[in-house]
Specification:
The protein has 111 residues and is mainly alpha-helical. The chain has one helix at 2-104. The longest helix has 103 residues, at 2-104. The chain is elongated, with a radius of gyration of 37 Å.
Length: 111
Amino acid sequence: MIELATLVLVGLVILAVIAAFSLAAFVIHAVFWLVLLPFRILFGLVLLPFLILKFVIGVVLMLVVAPIIAIVTLVAALVTVLAIGIPLLPFIIVGSAIYILFRSTSPVPAR
């Protein structure tokens, strides 16, 4: 029984050490964040025109590239449909002929 109590005590000590290191890491992280906050705000204000320029250039490029991508996508879809449809063409013809043959005969009315 004493072994179990020792094991529980060792586990609690390890848990306390982990909690202390986690708290220390959190405090250090918070202090660094608060110390560097003015620099982050300053660089954010300095770099804001460049971010706006990046956004405008991205919009202009997307206006140019989007129609090209749409056309390429439509062509790829057409090629895919043809690549699947052409090998199936004999089966489609035979199936259509059978459908037309049986569709043309009138059913016998039930009495």
